[in-house]
Amino acid sequence: MLCSERRGEQQEYTFIDANRALLKYRLPLREIIVDFYNELKSITSGYATFDYEDSEYQKSDLVKMDILLNGQPVDAMATIIHNQKAQKVGRELVDKLKKFIERQMFEITIQAAIGSKVIARETLSAMRKNVLAKCYGGDITRKKKLLEKQKEGKKRMKRVGSVDIPQEAFHELLKVSSSK
């Protein structure tokens, strides 16, 4: 099942004796590089062994997935992934990023896109300063004016503001994209 989940093609399945079996699979290298061995050992309680040899290159349905922050691509986060897994991995990457990026004074949109098609999106809401705190009662137009002024300031901030991405976010993104 582990090999099938990682796009493996079964080549051979033979029984060595009553207690042992030999499974031969052809797997993409990308699927076994990071976490395959650890998962294999945990599934089999440490009994399975793993050996591999290089095979020839094969065509595959791969796509480039970009991560966009406020519509701007972040080159360091772009990844090449199999088309079947793009939707799931894109959703997970965007969710992880939302947890790691700190809220700003303006709204941040985090998107995973393949070409011009957005496959996952999250919005990190803006921090809101209470500009109405010093307005007690009185005319509603004054309150509306203050809120409108704040709204314009946030639009201006969004145009010139940049989003800092913490180093932990890059590490988490590597874990997500390599383990799926």
SS element count, helices: 6
* CATH fourth-tier homologous superfamily of the largest domain: Elongation factor 4, C-terminal domain
Low-confidence stretches: none
The name CATH uses for the topology of the largest domain is Alpha-Beta Plaits
GO biological process, one term: positive regulation of translation
Keywords: GTP-binding, Hydrolase, Nucleotide-binding
Domain GTP-binding protein LepA C-terminal: 69-175
Protein name: GTP-binding protein LepA C-terminal domain-containing protein
In short:
By secondary structure, the chain is an alpha+beta fold. It is built from 6 helices and 7 strands, in the order αββααβββαββαα. The strands form 2 sheets. Strands 3, 4, 5, 6 and 7 form a 5-stranded antiparallel beta sheet that branches.
Describe the overall structure.
It comes from Aegilops tauschii subsp. strangulata (Goatgrass). This is GTP-binding protein LepA C-terminal domain-containing protein. Residues 69-175 form the GTP-binding protein LepA C-terminal domain. Residues 3-67 form the Elongation factor EFG domain. One of its GO terms (cellular component) is mitochondrion. The protein contains six helices and seven strands; from the N terminus they run αββααβββαββαα. By secondary structure, the chain is α+β, with helices and mostly antiparallel strands. The chain folds into two domains: 1-44, Alpha-Beta Plaits; 62-128 and 163-177, 2-Layer Sandwich (Alpha-Beta Plaits), CATH 3.30.70. The strands form two sheets. Strands 3, 4, 5, 6 and 7 form a five-stranded antiparallel sheet that branches. β6 (108-114) and β7 (117-124) form a beta hairpin. The chain is elongated. The model has no long low-confidence stretch (mean pLDDT 80).
